[in-house]
């Protein structure tokens, strides 16, 4: 696996017979462009956000939806399973833009990192990618999340969690989901759509635990989208000096990112969660120099990027 080229959204490869990682979104909670930069532009205007007025999103790596990853897992029988990590506020836009571009026909299962708006507020739109049934008589999509996230979603989306209709309640079409709680523990693995995952609890602020995930046997991939501090047990699992070197680290840009990459020492890293303060081209020039100096290839990912990988 090589780090993606700067130009183009995917490698030239036969995706029908390979697994791949598709970056549906690489932006922060408010996404990019920042609306205030457009409705009350500064002088001079924000260089990153103003590009959205002149460059189509599919050609603009600085146009960023909420961070989300789609794992296109091709198993030993050549069958593809599609595993979605996080369903944020921009999910519908991501489906229209990138599911169609990459010919993604469905989602087999969903994993949630946490229950903040940028990770869950697209859950209602899951019904749009499920088979149509006016009576909701379809197989549910499995969705994996922590108990804390489950309790929050029961409040945010009671109609998606409700098991039975109340007496006299009319049937309305909603997303059909099968909720499966997982533990915030590196020792408690789970399997979905044929692929094993290890939860990676990290601090997202000092009073909140978010989950990353480690997956892949042929290539070890860690996905950590919301982190301010690594727990020692989690860092051990993903560090070269601990349980073994990662083939790919996908990491949030929120806090001391490059320091963490040096400690963890993956073979390569792609960054997500960027605000409008990150300019894709300029910051990747800086990261290219950093990569040469430190010996770890690192660059910003971008929406629509497809990375082939053996899992």
Automatic annotation (TrEMBL):
Residues 64-276 form the Metallo-beta-lactamase domain. InterPro entries: Metallo-B-lactamas (IPR001279), RibonucZ/Hydroxyglut_hydro (IPR036866). SUPFAM superfamilies: Metallo-hydrolase/oxidoreductase. It holds the Pfam family Lactamase_B_2. It comes from the Eukaryota. This is Metallo-beta-lactamase domain-containing protein. It comes from Papaver somniferum (Opium poppy).
């Amino acid at each position: 696996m090589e780090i993606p080229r700067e130009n183009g959204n995917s490698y030239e490869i036969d995706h029908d017979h390979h697994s791949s990682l598709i970056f549906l979104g690489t932006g922060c909670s408010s996404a990019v462009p920042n609306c205030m930069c457009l409705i009350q532009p500064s002088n001079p205007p924000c260089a990153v956000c103003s590009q959205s007025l002149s460059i189509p999103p599919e050609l603009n790596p600085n146009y960023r939806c909420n961070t989300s990853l789609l794992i296109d897992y091709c198993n030993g029988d050549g069958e593809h399973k599609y595993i979605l990590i996080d369903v944020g506020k921009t999910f519908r836009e991501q489906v229209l833009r990138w599911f169609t571009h990459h010919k993604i026909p469905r989602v087999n299962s969903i994993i949630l990192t946490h229950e903040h708006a940028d990770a869950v507020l697209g859950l209602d739109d899951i019904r749009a990618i499920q088979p149509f049934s006016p009576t909701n008589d379809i197989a549910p999509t499995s969705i994996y999340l922590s108990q804390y996230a489950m309790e929050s979603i029961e409040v945010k989306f009671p109609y998606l969690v409700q098991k039975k209709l109340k007496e006299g309640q009319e049937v309305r079409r909603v997303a059909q989901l099968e909720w499966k709680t997982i533990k915030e523990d590196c020792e408690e693995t789970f399997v979905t759509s044929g692929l094993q995952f290890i939860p990676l609890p990290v601090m997202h602020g000092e009073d909140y635990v978010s989950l990353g995930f480690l997956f892949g046997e042929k290539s070890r991939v860690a996905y950590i989208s919301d982190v301010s501090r690594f727990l020692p047990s989690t860092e051990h699992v993903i560090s070269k000096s601990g349980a073994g070197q990662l083939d790919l680290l996908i990491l949030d840009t929120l806090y001391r990112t490059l320091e963490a990459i040096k400690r963890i020492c993956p073979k390569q890293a792609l960054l997500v969660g960027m605000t409008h303060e990150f300019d894709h081209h300029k910051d990747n020039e800086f990261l290219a120099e950093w990569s040469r100096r430190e010996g770890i290839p690192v660059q910003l990912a971008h929406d629509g990027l497809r990375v082939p990988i053996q899992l």
